[in-house]
Design a protein that fits this description.
Helix content is about 35%, strand content about 20%. A 6-stranded mixed beta sheet has the order 2-1-3-4-5-6. The longest helix is centred in the N-terminal third of the chain and has 16 residues.
Amino acid sequence: MRPTVVLASRNAHKVGELRAILVGALGDAVEVVAMDDPAVTSILDGASIPDVVESEVTFAGNAALKAHAVADATGLPAIADDSGLCVDVLGGAPGIFSARWSGRHGDDAANVALLLAQVADVPGEHRGAGFVCAAVLAVPGSADVVEHGQLRGTLERAPRGTGGFGYDPVLRPDGDERTCAELSAQEKQAISHRGKAFRALAPAVRTALEVV
């Protein structure tokens, strides 16, 4: 079996995106699996990985909590990220609360609707925002490795596009006329905050798994 690293997420959209980024960076040298993969469930032998309360106040802190929960439960290297949208005029909010900005965790439509309502009167020149990602590699017995990525852009006034997830339909990357939800998966991975953070993390994954 190839060396294995576990993605510490139950979000199917995110797992698919992150696996594609890591496979693109690492090739087939490493097996990148999700938490519900048979390779993981067989190790757990009927047990479950506990849900993590994201109680830290930084993206890196919350990512570390999630990565350690998986690494501790499985004994395998684990990667987690914590990501969000930081809006300049809101002082960096929603930030770490992005996924539950409307009060219901993971309700993308409600989160987007509330955010757009909050900045409805903000003129275009002040609608700067950016996706931020902290990615953490946790390896049992080793120090954490943390990398960051950012994608800057401008908030649109209404959602556009059907790709991606979260706030993708309302952020237009700098230098493009399309929102993140209108980009192809490959285009998005090339510039995204997660793409930047996970590609930066790839050399540490190679080292941790002793992959040449």
